[in-house]
Design a protein that fits this description.
Layout (H helix, E strand, L loop, with lengths): L2 E7 L7 H12 L3 E7 L5 H10 L4 E4 L4 H7 L2 E2 L1 H6 L4 E3 L6 E3 L2 H12 L8 E5 L3 H11 L5 E5 L3 H9 L7 E4 L9 E6 L17 E9 L8 H8 L4 E3 L2 H16 L5 H13 L1
Parallel strand pairs: 1-2, 1-3, 4-6, 7-8, 7-10, 8-9, 10-11, 11-12
Antiparallel strand pairs: 3-5, 5-6
Helix pairs in contact: 1-9, 5-6, 5-9, 9-10
Bound molecules: NADPH dihydro-nicotinamide-adenine-dinucleotide phosphate.
The site of NADPH dihydro-nicotinamide-adenine-dinucleotide phosphate (NDP) has 25 residues, from helix 6 and helix 9.
């Protein structure tokens, strides 16, 4: 019998996850199906439970249900506990297991696909929402030279940094507080690019040879990457690789085998450019 998987979201029709997992399944010779399922805004848990009752083996969870998915789990990985959100559910054991693969996906995209090791780097993380919180612990594991979290609302950045103070000293504040500093990696985890808004970043924050990474992806350059290019960032990347690599990590959780993300990313990139 073909094993069933899905991604829950609202909206979800735009999701690229079915195409990604279809390619992973073919690459790894796994007999599975993967579909996008729209859950009502007030009915995520009921929809997930129906999927389990119908024999579903696992699921991804996207906006706006990652926090609710966290609450649905009977067991969670340490990285999901840290993130306070779950993007991967496994229904095959006793109860419901929850994981968060976003941070691992980001780190793998930067270090493996982009060939940019994070050890010893000064990293600026922009944003203090769910996406930012989800990646902090996996980033801190890479032995950075330092992490600064900057957010439009500086108090939220301070509070977020405080939640990770047992792992490392993390600087935080509003965007203006980064003035006078330089960074080797700047990651945009705000949703500003979604609305086409530019971030009010001080000039001079990009160190020579630095990487600017926007978690957002789509056709064309995001406002953040355009700004980074103007300000001299040497390497620019969008979040498509993170999307593919968090999916590869979820596939590993479900199937015990890790697909190679690189060829799938290349194929997706071609589709997006067409
Ligand atoms: P949240 O709604 O939880 O957080 C939004 C964040 O963006 C907050 O820090 C908010 O600041 C900031 N923000 C919003 N608008 C602006 C603006 N105009 N100027 C400055 N800051 C702004 O969203 P998420 O954290 O869940 O998602 C953030 C982004 O990450 C989205 O674009 C999402 O698509 C992307 N993402 C990509 C993934 C991938 O696989 N590539 C995975 C997960 C997320 P404030 O607190 O001041 O309001």
């Amino acid at each position: 019998m073909t094993d069933r998987y899905c991604v829950f979201g609202n909206p979800v029709a735009h999701s690229r996850s079915p195409a990604i997992h279809a390619r992973f399944a073919a690459q790894c010779h796994q007999d599975l199906s993967y579909e996008a399922l729209l859950a009502p805004l007030d009915g995520f848990s009921a929809t997930a439970r129906e999927f389990v009752a119908a024999g579903g083996k696992g699921a991804n969870v996207t906006l706006p249900f990652k926090e609710e998915a966290f609450g649905l789990c009977t067991r969670r990985s340490a990285r999901a506990e840290r993130a306070g959100a779950v993007n991967t559910l496994d229904f095959t054991g006793s109860g419901i297991f929850g994981d968060n693969t976003d941070g691992a996906g980001l780190v793998r995209d930067i270090e493996v696909n982009l060939g940019f090791p994070l050890a010893g780097k000064r990293l600026l993380l922009l944003g203090a929402g769910g996406a930012a919180r989800g990646v902090i612990a996996p980033i801190l594991e890479r032995q950075l030279a330092g992490l600064f979290i900057a957010n439009r609302n500086g108090d939220k950045a301070d509070a977020l940094a405080g939640q990770f103070s047992d792992l490392a000293t993390v600087d935080a504040g509003n965007f203006a507080k980064t003035a006078g500093r330089t960074f080797d990696v700047v990651i945009n985890a705000t949703s500003a690019s979604l609305s086409g808004a530019a971030l009010p970043l001080p000039a001079g924050i990009f160190a020579p040879g630095s990487l600017a990474y926007d978690m957002m992806y789509g056709k064309g350059e995001t406002p953040f990457l355009a700004l980074a290019r103007e300000q001299g960032a040497a390497h620019l990347a969008d979040g498509l690789g993170m999307l593919v690599e968090q999916a590869a990590e979820a596939f590993l959780v479900w199937r015990g085998v890790r697909p190679d993300g690189a060829p799938v990313l290349a194929a997706l990139r071609e589709q997006l450019a067409a």
